Amino acid sequence: MPHHASRYLAEGPRVGIRHFTHEDGAEFTARARESKDLHHPWLFPPDTAQAYTAYADRLIEDPTRVGFLVCEKGDGAIAGFVNVNNIVQGGFRSGALGYGAFAHAAGRGLMTEGLGLVVAYAFGAMRLHRLEINVQPLNAPSIALARACGFRLEGFSPKMLFVDGAWRDHQRWAITAETARESGRH
Description:
The chain has about 190 residues and is an alpha+beta fold.
């Protein structure tokens, strides 16, 4: 039987992660539209073809960003996404994560598995040392995901990001390569 290389950069028991492509636009935007109630007021992923193209272009072409789709193994359905933004190399070797689950996948543990794969990939193949997540304090599901993946609360940033028409407070959660290795999670 011939061996076929995986289409995923990394795989877990239920999901694999891969980079965004322009061909993912129709599925991604449909999932974003289906998930508006889940995402509001925290997150606004692109939900039109034009918005997706601009978003994917930034993730594909900008060396300070890398986007990952979290896909269910088997049918390959997009369960969510994790982006590493503001990548800085040199002595810092850091990135800021943004992520979201789609409604059909929410609450099933797929994003916990997917975020864990992205963290391991970032500390391995990407050679980063630190990852940070900035979360609005009332976004309990996002905080639970950060905590489940070994991120620790580092602080509070008032009026940090402009989201949904206003400057919003955020908690800063972070993990380093050493912490991830010590925890055995990644």
